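Person: Please work through this fold.
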Amino acid sequence: MATEQEITTLADQLEELLAGNSVDKAVELMASIHPADQADIYSRLEDDRREAFLALLSAEGMADFLSHLEEEPRLEIIAAMPRVVLSRVLDRMDNDEAADVLQTLPPSDTARVLANMATAGEVTPLLGHAEESAGGLMTRGFVALHKDMTAQQAVTYLRLRKPFAEEAYYLYVLDALNHLEGVVNLRELIVAAPEATIEEIMARDVVSVVTGTDQEECARVLQRYRLRALPVVDEDGVLNGIITADDLIDVITEEATEDMYRMAGLLGAEGVFTPVLESARRRIAWLSINMVTAFFAAAMVAIFEDTIDKVTALAVFMPIVAGQGGNAGIQTITIVVRGLALGEIELQDARRVLAKEVAIGVIKGITFGLAVGIVAWVWKDSWALGLVVGLALLLNMLVAGLAGTLIPLTLRMMRLDPAVASGVFVTGFTDVIGFLLLLGLATLLISQLT
């Protein structure tokens, strides 16, 4: 793997070669660079050099390069690529990746590209499945055996077929109608006696998913059972394809990024170099909702203006009570959303999760409530102020635990993504409740505070 410094050096070398029209040397340099590093170099090139960079790639090289490129620049390149050239590139991609690319094209372009693809017969069946389902992720490259074959016959078959490494790790046993009956690990096949039948050495309890299974569930199954590939069957148990581990690693990364963005109220994936106006558009929507919650918090403060006028020291501790509550809520919501995403938490677990987070909220509340309360007492020489601040912080920590648990669980119960701007809702809620608790308690004890 190239280091950051090595990537920078390679990008500078390529820039110099392209500027000097040293095409042969540039092609030679490109051939020595891994496609993942090529993608990093491409992102560093000036716009006028990128077209020359792409011209250095063969169809196979372009296929590998696009597989490692971020979504936005990949879509830009595909949109500008002549459709006949795109057909040759997609022929050299994995079936599932080619299908993903075709699903981004207008229907007329998809038909034109497929008409020129040698692998159209393998890719076309994948287009009928949702992109984020098992059917959309699977590739049709797998090795099928019959249970009556001997181990020696199976090895001979593998030598003749010469499958890719990711296709041959598991060998799937099918009947005459292609129903999945078992699976043989390649190692088990190699060490088996030559005369042993596949039926004798195959595992019958095959972990599989149906074509409509969501990609997140596929990733959970693969992780849980420590698989290298996951077979995909239809409702009748007919093997349609397999999902390889590297594809599901990409899914895990995408889903984690998506959840992270949604918790922060960002709509859609956004990169560091996404155009300014596009980034602004994506961020403003949920910030507008956050602005509404901020006005609720401001309205809560306005209700207690007289109390603040009489005890101005309260203004010093308002951001502490609200801020600590918001931070505690974010901690809780991160744990809960992660648990829901990984399948660790189901709706029937809500009471147990809530009890735990309430208990943690009490512990955090007592810890920080005592600390801040004592600071307020000593700093402002008022035991009553210390009591108000400490109690408000304790209760807001408890509220943060409740909100951080209930908001994502409620969203899941409503069949909504629990990561959708949960952080925005929690921080707004703890701000309002924090101000209410601090200023409300101060109003009740105003005679002691003044």
Remarks:
- The longest strand covers residues 180-185.
